[in-house]
Amino acid sequence: MLMKELSVFIDESGDFGIATKFPSYYLTTFVFHDQSKSIDKQVNQLESRIKNNNFDIEYLHSMPIIRKESVFDKYSLDDRRKLLYCMLNFTMSCPITHYTVFVDRKIANDKIALSGKLSKEITQFIDRNYDFFMQYNRIVVYYDNGQIELSSVLNAIFSAHLNHVEFRKAIPQKYKLLQVADFICTIELLNIKRNSNTLNSSEKKFFYKSQELKKTFIKAINKKHFEN
Fold this sequence. Notes:
- This protein has 228 residues and is of the alpha/beta class.
- It has a single domain (5-222), classed as 2-Layer Sandwich (Nucleotidyltransferase, domain 5).
- The protein has helices at 40-52, 62-67, 77-93, 111-128, 130-134, 148-161, 176-195, 201-206, 212-222, and strands spanning 5-13, 25-34, 96-104, 138-143, 165-169.
- α6 (148-161) links the parallel β4 (138-143) and β5 (165-169).
- It is globular and about 50 Å long.
């Protein structure tokens, strides 16, 4: 019998501290990849594009690219846009789907409330799609354990509802699909900020046309949305 394995790559935006500024949101993005569908070709193409453009970076970290932060502060706007488009093209070429849980911090202002709301949303998602998860012999969840609270929620919910789950601490430098989860989480957050007219100056400056974020990035990742 053929072993079917599902990889789940997770990234988040926000933290579990008490929310003091509004609007404020906590996002958790799940990227799903059936291991029977290779992405070796796509990975090689992405690495070649980065190398051919002489970028000296360990991995593509989307929000710092947009905001010209960290190691990306030495690159021009055009170069940073090339990097984000590399990630967009890679994401769209990979056989993946994604789902993002949104929590409005107005209704989950502290650690306990946020943990409870996240647990409820993730549980409902798993329950709605139980047949999808059960078609796999093994599910491997990859997260960098960047937030202990989220790690606890993920372990508790997945372990309680699915008995064939493994958890692995992972770093984005090693797993390109963790970078995809970061990218999608970033675009989902920017979409919320666009709708609430709260994009900051660096985020607005990054996109040359006012509709570029919506028509190019948001529209594209919506095509990969997990249908449940």
